[in-house]
């Protein structure tokens, strides 16, 4: 039987208010961020275990504040505050776990807010229903505040067991940090180097060549292959296909593809077995498929200490949590034109302001630490997370004062910054004496939904074809010892040719598929497949659930890939 409200002590009122506040605080600062982290771990530099300690001050402040309010406020106000907090906690759960609408990848592209009008009505109705029920059953909620709070928290904790497991896996991967220095060591005799500029389109490079004659000088000795296609429009499937020469085709699960093809049969695996020192700087999700000490997180190069940078990244995670937790009509001010409300309010000037910062700092570290002292021939894979949206810098790599909408011109300027970073690496290789003994590839993993020099985009749309620019990544190649002006070739290349090209050039035994880019004929007839598959799920989890048989539109290019007339859909 419930105790009459008039007989509840001040301490009990304080405890109930504190319990309701704990429900809200744990959800917003721990449980919802953890749920977001599980599905997007490749977007973060730090593990969940490194981020969540930064929630403790917020949780402590919330429960202490609520406890004091429950203690000092009049009985009726304390009662109402507790009920409101319980309703808020339940509402947070309903919105964040059940009312999940697809707003895209939140990568700086414009959001079609008006298209979610119906979702806004559903959200509003759900929140009104929660608070209406809270008002009607306020006595029950107040009397059972502890039980209700505990029940909701336990439901969410149970759903987050995968997060705890993945956090442990990331922590194991972080052990590779002890040999980060191998990334900066090069051989005086033989090196294979891949510099990957995330999402840089070949039409963008061509446009920049027209505008800026100095670009040709920065990449002299290279051959530009504009007629190159990627296999996918997103990073997660593209990088494994570049490293292995085998594009994921849904005939097996992703985990099987990674463990069998990427880990055991890829170019890094082949070179490692034949005496090369292998080093990769890329997204942390890929690192578990390579040996300890070989793979570093490409974005974990803060300009402050790790503690400050983890705090800043936790604030970013809170922004995503707030976006997921509020109804539709409040999401737009949270997104804040990709400037994000909490990041604007809570940043203290330390740590990375964006993924672009991490890439630039990685290049800074190469300039400071790269040296020619490796005892073995080396393979380097350097993944810079730019010019991938959102837009953060101008052509000179100076930070934009505010977030910018994704436009052709803005992206082109950020792409110029990306190329400047690649040129800085080349200059460093020249300075330490390994440029001429290195075969170097400067490439991207895919294109983007922006048209520059591609022909007749309206034709592609009319005939149900892909947006051609998404399949046109940058590709520049330089053989060891080659010197000369920047050349251009229309060879029908694919990104999956990179692995075989480097395997042949390094003169190692291999059976990597694809074509040797240095031997491919200019007028070769070749069908090049592109699968419109943008993988966003957590491929690193060992699970019985198989992605085998996943259907996605497929297209084939014959001839000049810039022309939609040369593409057709595979039925």
Topology of this protein?
Blueprint (H helix, E strand, L loop, with lengths): L9 H30 L8 H4 L4 H17 L2 H23 L19 H20 L1 H6 L1 H15 L1 H13 L17 E7 L4 H10 L2 H5 L4 E2 L3 E2 L5 H10 L9 H12 L1 H7 L3 E6 L1 H4 L7 E3 L8 H20 L2 H8 L5 H6 L8 H15 L8 E7 L6 E3 L5 E6 L3 H25 L5 E6 L13 H6 L12 E4 L8 E2 L4 E2 L3 H8 L21 E5 L22 E5 L8 E4 L1
Parallel strand pairs: 1-6, 1-9, 2-11, 3-12, 4-5, 4-6
Antiparallel strand pairs: 2-10, 7-8, 9-10, 13-14, 14-15
Strand fraction: 5-15%
Number of E-type strands: 15
**Main sheet strand line-up:** 5-4-6-1-9-10-2-11
The number of helical segments is 21
Q: Supply Rg.
A: 26 Å
Helix content: 40-55%
Structure description:
The chain is 46% helix and 11% strand. 49% of the residues are buried. It has helices at residues 10-39, 48-51, 56-72, 75-97, 117-136, 138-143, 145-159, 161-173, 202-211, 214-218, 235-244, 254-265, 267-273, 284-287, 306-325, 328-335, 341-346, 355-369, 408-432, 457-462, 498-505, and strands spanning 191-197, 223-224, 228-229, 277-282, 295-297, 378-384, 391-393, 399-404, 438-443, 475-478, 487-488, 493-494, 527-531, 554-558, 567-570. It is elongated, with a radius of gyration of 26 Å. The chain is α/β, with parallel strands linked by helices. The longest helix is centred in the first third of the chain and has 30 residues, at 10-39. Helix 1 (10-39) packs parallel to helix 4, helix 3 (56-72) runs antiparallel to helix 4 (75-97) and helix 4 (75-97) runs parallel beside helix 7. The protein starts with 9 loop residues before the first helix and ends with a strand. The chain is built from 21 helices and 15 strands. A hairpin with a 5-residue loop joins strand 7 (391-393) and strand 8. It has an eight-stranded mixed β-sheet with strand order 5-4-6-1-9-10-2-11, sandwiched between helices. Strands 13-14-15 form a three-stranded antiparallel β-sheet, with no helix packed on it.
